[in-house]
Amino acid sequence: MNEAIRELIPKSVWNKFADLNAVPRPSKKEERVIDFMINFGTSLNLETIKDEVGNVIIRKPASKGMEDRMTITLQSHLDMVHQKNNDTEFDFDRQGIEMFVDEDWVKAKGTTLGADNGMGVAAIMALLESTDIAHPPLEALFTIDEETGMTGATGLKGGILQGKILLNLDTEEDDELDIGCAGGIDITATRQYSEKPVPRASVAYKITVNGLQGGHSGIEIHKGLGNANKIMNRVLYTVGNKYMLRISEIDGGSLRNAIPRESVSTIVLLKKQSEAFEATIEELAEIIKKELNAIEPNLNIAIEPTKLPKTVMGLGSQERLLQGIYAAHNGVYAMSATIPGLVETSNNVARVLVKDGEVKIGCLTRSSVDSAKMDLANALKSTFELAKCDVELSGTYPGWTPNPNSKILKVAENKYTALFNEKPKVAACHAGLECGILGQNYPDMDMISFGPTILGAHSPDERVSISSVQKFWKFLLSILEETPKA
């Protein structure tokens, strides 16, 4: 299946992508891909370094005639988001990604593809291995754990990098040059609850919300995509006010940076209410599906009888949980007042787990304005504290302040216009690029971000455009040719 990928043009890039995707590389479990990258660098007899947190740096001297140019740092992250369809059997810890070609797109079979940020990694690897490409001195920076904490970028110390210009290859629209991004912070709400015996004369149901698109909780947060955790909570809150419904378990969403696609709950209620309950669920499901039909045509809300659990959540705890999640903001909170069309601040209610006497709720709040980020984070903290949760704010990272006077930006704009007969979009994005963090220890480094077109990132619908990769590669090589002199 992956052999067809290796025949795509440019072969050097696609072959490196296929090599990379054969290596399991979940966030916080990057040992194998770190070893893979170290072996790659040493096999080329290039200076290869692993820093104390696990980032890999590989340096390559300039090609002949380019020795007087500034050193370019090329940066991408090694880890990938692991998401799969609920009917896909796949072990991300052991299996390589199974890819296939569908017209102009490369896709994965029921899982995320890893084009985010594997295409950037593959392009850098192809440059390091090349023998016939003109380039200045190159410094490849492969960071770890970008997707779940940016700990690689955060842990990179000052003084290690030699480059004066950084090209981050982690943008997902091929006509866009990014010069700024949002910062973020994790909100985690937890509480213990007392488990109660299942009431007598009860029946149990499994409620399932699935069929949602999911996607990147920054780049796609403005689309109004359905959030499985919020939909499940709406269902439970609504029917809970009408019937003696008791929650046993909830398991919704997964990673903070992915809009949740699925949620499953187990509930019990009095047997005599079951017929009316089923009718109410069916009616409510149709209302919600109609509301979201334009954006989520495949939304499914279903119930089925299931085995009675041993315990349920205490009623007071259940009421606070449902009220807290209902009140927690999800989606766009504010648009930028300075950059038209840019989401300034948002939140993703990413994870809800209720099981064995413990509640855990995970959110990711993003903003290009640090004070606004903390304002929404504190609003969420207050919301969950009112629901009697303990709340931790952690993993904060800064945004990247745009520099419209960047010298490498001017080079890139001119090359793009000359190559493609149109001007690129110069923008900031609502994703969490690593440039803002790297800039803290390297404040004088001139940075831009770009990449090929990738759709559906952080979901099993992730796909990368083949023609766009060709465009991206041509553009990258042209920038290297025009690197300013040192």
Automatic annotation (TrEMBL):
Its EC number is 3.4.13.18. Residues 210-293 form the Peptidase M20 dimerisation domain. GO terms for cellular component: cytosol. GO terms for molecular function: metal ion binding; metallodipeptidase activity. It catalyses: Hydrolysis of dipeptides, preferentially hydrophobic dipeptides including prolyl amino acids. CDD domains: M20_pepD. Keywords: Cobalt, Dipeptidase, Hydrolase, Metal-binding, Metalloprotease, Protease, Zinc. Its cofactor is Co(2+); Zn(2+). GO terms for biological process: proteolysis. Gene3D superfamilies: Zn peptidases (3.40.630.10). PANTHER family: CYTOSOL NON-SPECIFIC DIPEPTIDASE (PTHR43501). Belongs to the peptidase M20C family. NCBIfam families: aa-his-dipept. This is Cytosol non-specific dipeptidase. It comes from Zobellia galactanivorans (strain DSM 12802 / CCUG 47099 / CIP 106680 / NCIMB 13871 / Dsij). The lineage of its organism: Bacteria, Pseudomonadati, Bacteroidota, Flavobacteriia, Flavobacteriales. The gene is pepD2.
